[in-house]
Amino acid sequence: MVVRAPRPNDVLADYLSEELRPGSGAAERLLELVRELRAGRTGVWEVPGECWSLELTPARATLRTEDAIPGRTQHLPLEDFEEAVRAWLDFVRLSHASASS
Questions:
Q1: Domain annotation covers residue 31
Q2: Is 14 inside a domain boundary?
């Protein structure tokens, strides 16, 4: 699944479509990490990926790549990142449901 978006949201769109592939469980695991950050159980979390790296802190999410979109980084408030991951999960579920019917 390929998702395209204009700058600066191209970074987030590429991360979601490249790293949170449908059926992988990666999006659900990320949402659990966000819950742990909010609960104060961890301070900083590094999540390496195939093309992207993600750093989560209680305040923000930072996406970095040198492969997918060379030299690009995007910083998002943690709440916005969580909302984007939830929206991605909803999109994937709806796409799968409509493809199955």
A1: yes
A2: yes
DSSP 73: E
Residue type, 5: A
Q: 57, 43 in Cβ contact below 8 A? A: yes
What whole-number distance in Å separates Cα of residue 75 and Cα of residue 54?
A: 10
Structural domain count, the chain: 1
**Selection from 31, 33, 59, 35 nearest residue 45 by Cα:** 33
Q: How far apart are CA 96 and CA 100, in angstroms?
A: 6
Q: Round to the nearest angstrom and report the end-to-end CA distance of the chain.
A: 18
Write out pLDDT tens, residues 41-80.
Answer: 878 889 888 888 999 999 999 999 867 667 788 999 999 9
Specify the residue for token string 């019917």.
Answer: 101
Q: What pTM, to 2 d.p., does this model score?
A: 0.84
